[in-house]
């Protein structure tokens, strides 16, 4: 009885380690070229990613290359000739983070390769198991703690959106003022330039003794 | 002895079950560049799950706003039927109940040659039903309520992600407007000054000695 329990526990633990990486979006990589996905992330956000090449039944397992770059161009992760892996980083800059995948040149053929990508940022990347172990909570209390985390994340996001909207409103109002000023200045320049023309031509004709 | 063993194993199963529930996140929020057709696949575990999400086209420098009508969005079920079809839009929200479990295909189609960046968010939500409650005696009715709460919070998060993507698009348009205002007005001034200088030079040449000015 005990052995069977351990056996099933072992199998289910194995399943649980594979299932998270199978839960994610699947991308099909073209046979040549790279496929990139990006996300705009703020600073100090934890990003956790798992990727795994989906086996297509044939014995030949194609390997892929992965590259993750920060918005300023720094290389955060680079790996070639791999079929699965994971990486995590904390963002240092606000901007567009890019993750690119390509099929290794050896395996480039006519077939397209499917990659399962599990990209988690912020609250979704939080390690709840360690929190449960540290504070010795489980079951319903852990679920409620997760919900509380989600609510806090929503609140933070709302403040961020408010700040962005205020910035954009400032830019819009400045542009509006500039349009008004530049149009009036354009009229002024038009009048000024034509005045200059008239004055110059009058002087020219007076010099030529035509008027 | 038997009872304590059962109690221990049931507790373990509860922990495992709660751990398993934590893996049902099914949240994906990413941006992808669409040249012609880009498809994203997501696995739906249970029939009857609610699949919700949104997508926004963050436009690349389009010159005239009327030039690009938008992109088409299609959702195909594992059986091959089209579950959702939205045409010619620059961003929308969607929600539907999955008719079967399996691999669903979410495709973006760009009818024009200019590549577009699409920022999308897909969420697969599962709420344990009465049937699941009856099947698994370790699932409390409270788990159903917690799942409903979680789904409600996810919908708020989805809305926020949509707003964030729209804000990025508006910011892009604003920046483009600001640059155009400055660039085009300064260019206009220089052109005006240049044209009037050319006019003066031309008139001067008409009256110059090298050309027989008696003709004028």
Q: What is the strand and helix layout of this fold?
A:
The complex is a heterodimer of chains A (211) and B (216).
Chain A: H1 2-22, E1 25-29, E2 34-41, E3 46-53, E4 64-69, E5 75-82, E6 84-90, E7 95-103, E8 113-121, H2 128-135, H3 140-207
Antiparallel strand pairs in A: 1-8, 2-7, 3-6, 3-8, 4-5, 4-7
Chain B: H1 2-23, E1 27-34, E2 37-44, E3 50-58, E4 71-76, E5 82-89, E6 91-97, E7 102-109, E8 116-125, H2 130-135, H3 141-206
Antiparallel strand pairs in B: 1-8, 2-7, 3-6, 3-8, 4-5, 4-7
Q: What would your notes on this structure say?
A:
The complex is a heterodimer of chains A (211) and B (216). Chain A has 211 residues and is of the alpha+beta class. Chain A has three helices and eight strands, in the order αββββββββαα. In chain A, strands 1-8-3-6 form a four-stranded antiparallel β-sheet, with helices on one face. Chain A starts with a helix and ends with a helix. The relative contact order of chain A is 0.13. By secondary structure, chain B is of the alpha+beta class. Chain B contains three helices and eight strands, in the order H-E-E-E-E-E-E-E-E-H-H. Chain B has helices at residues 2-23, 130-135, 141-206; strands at residues 27-34, 37-44, 50-58, 71-76, 82-89, 91-97, 102-109, 116-125. The radius of gyration of chain B is 31 Å and the shape is elongated. Residues 9-24 of chain B have low confidence and may be disordered. Chains A and B meet through helix 1, strand 1, strand 2, strand 8 and helix 3 of A and helix 1, strand 1, strand 2, strand 8 and helix 3 of B.
Strand content of chain B: 25-35%
For the termini of chain B, the CA-CA separation is 123 Å
Q: Taking all residues together, what is the mean pLDDT of chain A?
A: 84
- Sheet with most strands: strand arrangement of chain A: 1-8-3-6
- Share of β-strand residues of chain A: 25-35%
Structural class of chain A, please? alpha+beta
Unreliably modeled segments of chain A? 8-22
Number of helices of chain B: 3
